[in-house]
Request: fold
Amino acid sequence: MHDNQALTMGRVTRVLAERLRPAVYADPHPLAIAAHAVDGEPIPAAQGLNAEYAPVDVGDHWGRAWGTTWLRLTGEVPAAFAGRRVEIVADLGFDVNMPGFQAEGLVYTPDGEAVRSLNPRAQWIPVSPKAEGGERIEYYVEAASNPVLLDYHPFLPTEEGDVLTSSDEELYRIRRADVCVFEEEVFELVHDVEVLHQLATELPEDSARRARILRALDNALNRVDLQDIPATAAAAREALQEVLASPAEPSAHRISAVGHAHIDSAWLWPLRETVRKVSRTSSSMATLLDEDEDFVYAMSSAQQFAWMKQDRPEVFARVKKAVADGRFVPIGGMWVEPDAVLPSGESFIRQISQGQRFFREEFGIECRGAWLPDSFGYSGALPQLLTGAGFEWFLTQKISWNQVNRFPHHTFLWEGNDGSRIFTHFPPMDTYNAQLSGEEVARAARQFKEKSVARHSLAPTGWGDGGGGTTREMLARAKRMADLEGSPRVVFESPNEFFDKAMAELPEPGVWRGELYLELHRGTFTTQHRTKQGNRTSERLLAEAELWAAAAAVRTGRAYPYDELDELWREVLLLQFHDILPGTSIAWVHREAEERYARVATALRRIIAESLAALGVTAGADGLDAGPVGAELALNAAPVARRGVPAGSVAVAEPAAPSSARAEGNAFVLESASVRVAIDDRGLVRSLVDRTTGREAIAPGRAGNALQLHQDFPNMWDAWDVDEHYFAMREDLDGPAEVSVDGDAVVVRRAFGASSIEQRLALADDGRLLVIDCDVDWQEEEKFLKLAFPVEVFTDEVVAETQFGHHRRANHENTSWEAARFETHAQRWFLVQEPGFGVAFLNESSHGFDVGRESGGREVVQNARFSLLRAPKFPDPRADRGRHRMRFGVLVGASPASATEAGWAMQSPLRTASGADVRALARSQDPAVIVSAVKLADDRSGDLVVRMYESAGSRVSTSIELAGVPAGSVVAADLIERPGAEIEAVRMPDGTVHVPVTLRPFEVKTLRVKS
Ligand SMILES: [Zn+2]
Reply:
């Protein structure tokens, strides 16, 4: 036979695009359109529906950036439509290639019921499944004119990302608003043809199945009268029946499609727009669930449900019913989908406890798995925190974005720092916005790494970010691929159904040990420093507010501020969202984040002051950030003892170790009993000696406190990425500086470019820590500022603090995996160490760093560099410009234990206090075990909750001393405070209670003390 396959493929492509798809909507009749442009921020629906409307026409412009325009569509169903399925097609000026990143609408009935969303990929409004003709049509559209920021030429700087700087230009043009007949048979034909065409594209060119499909498609198109497609669609479909009915092979890959919309809680739009995006998408999804009984939809983030409940209660009511039916499935069990490397360990726990609590209270369910498809790397602490909170599985796909290395698994056990393991799946389709195209499903089957032993994978299916979620077109494709020869099988089901099958078919999965480092987006450990500082400050103040509020409640009966603390936690958890805390949102979002953090800090400082007042304590006048303590009584909110003041207590402090600063010729010296620092007249640290051993830390001929400025223009994703080529161009800011002695500090002032920096170097705490306070006026563009300390330490690894412990990363480039980690992150410190000597580098508000291995003759020099500031121009054209105050520390003679202690102390310095002593409510008897949270239980029973972790990586048996706590009984609890086995506590003669605890390396433990 002659082979006409190429001709058939070309024929199908053209007929489908130019004739079949346009024929789905027939006989358009224009509707009358009227508009009301809202002045300023969005208005309530009732107000929008009753506003003054003025007529507008197709072709008219509408919508300045970030504006809202209410549109009214009126008309009637033509008599000729009687008995037909009728829909409105409304095109607000959409670009079909950008669902979620442009204009969107929510459609209302005149009485205010939300019908569904209008999106580039779903421009329709249902009118009637069986029209009578003559029916009146009246719909309202709350249309948001969100500007396109990620355009065809992406990453160009734009001022449209903040309502304060955006233009007044009207961005969109109404293209159509027609009432039409929806030709159901043509719709079905389109999907028959499309699915077979896409399948044929994926099949081997010489396969019999492909040849048969193309022959059938040719036959089908031979039956289509292009002048009367609706009349001939059924006959054409007949010709495809046989190839569509041929069943899948027994070994076919099986895809669990999960209806989904990945809605970023803020990103290229402000938080308030996400509130509306969620309601729009959810209204469409509730409607789609009504229309198709096979469909299952899953949505993460308790915050997004909470927004819906508040913003669109009628949509929430529909969702709640669908949740009860098991078809609208809450997933992820967290408050938002947070960044997964930067938040504290306690924050991760609260993401889960607040999320699960919301789902339990609203829907009576708890999620079984964690869903973080889009965070920029995953801390090795997570497996313990997820399993410790009761999760059975974890899902992400982001590691498929690695620039260099392909991850070896899709279904595996992820082992965390402490050895905890969680069943994990990476969808092999490599997307969280699947469309279920033939190409995508084939890719999933082809790429699936476990294909020799397993055959199930998951596909989160739908347009995210306000693009409208899953579409009926995706459902139509799935139905055809349920059991289709040559194709993976596709079925809609919930994530839990998928994971049950995946766990059953793979009882012995492979294991990945340690963090999931993303080989991309390495700038997110540093970008938007003020947002990161706000998070760190909030985490510290939340811990302290809970500590003193719990003490006041237990000891004085003062009411514990449950509601307010919940609200403040939820605010901070929201801002940990994976485009806010990483610094990758528009200017508006970061401006608002800084304002919100300021309000959080004010509220927490008030709670702290009031709780302390109840305990008879007044903390230092300025509240909380005072410097060295001169008075005898000191308040220690840190979870480590400082100068004789136990963790979490107010007591008399031992005198601070004396230190001095002086000029010596052209140089300057900082000195204490432990450390001697020599600073030259350019402000560079030439010598840093541990006086107890005489050991010099700075490498010969090198200098510390060296500011280095790099050109920083990544290939794409400006706020996200720092590309390896940034190393190549470096300017050392080691020229003349103004250096002087000020009290016990040496002050270095330096100007560079349009910027300036003042550094204050002093020895703190016991005189062992070199503290560098930086006050920067940062006015550079596309630059990366580093602060370097080249030290002579013989090691090939860097220890970095992570949540609840630390981990080690190889510090060489032997393989592509290590080479790709040229910029990494820590919680409060990182450390280079050889036996007997180490140097730790501490931060108070930032996370990024690198340690370069550099040749120093026979020795290898570890060039340890803090990442201070970046200056990307997209999506915020002025990211990080302006004033920053940041604190760093260099600890000589450090170990993980002393770095941990110094890191906590730098985060929560001692403060002056007056009034009464306050004994710690809960205190560990072993310094390796750190009591990191003390609070009252979320269930408001009045139980005291004490959280601790083993910080050294050792096995510890010790006890927790409870003082001034009317301890009835003590039980072990899981991380979200669900009680477990009782622990036999020992009542001591002095009235304290000692609770014996045994911890594994890096184990996190929670106790509940019943009153
Ligand atoms: Zn995202």
Observations:
- The first helix runs from residue 5 to 20.
